[in-house]
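Take a record.
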Amino acid sequence: MSEPVKPGQRAPRSGQYEEVGPRGGRTGHEVTISKGERVPPTRQPGGGFTMVDPTKNKSGRG
């Protein structure tokens, strides 16, 4: 698994991202983020987002 994207950073690829807790645990909360958009705040301090489903079109490729 890759390093989580932290809130405020720009998303490297478009797709579905799942929120992970501060220790890497899955939360079940997913958001759709487009490439270059800033990642939203997490519900718990110290968390981040990991890619679970990249977009299936060419515009989302990095």
Remarks:
- The two ends are 18 Å apart (CA to CA).
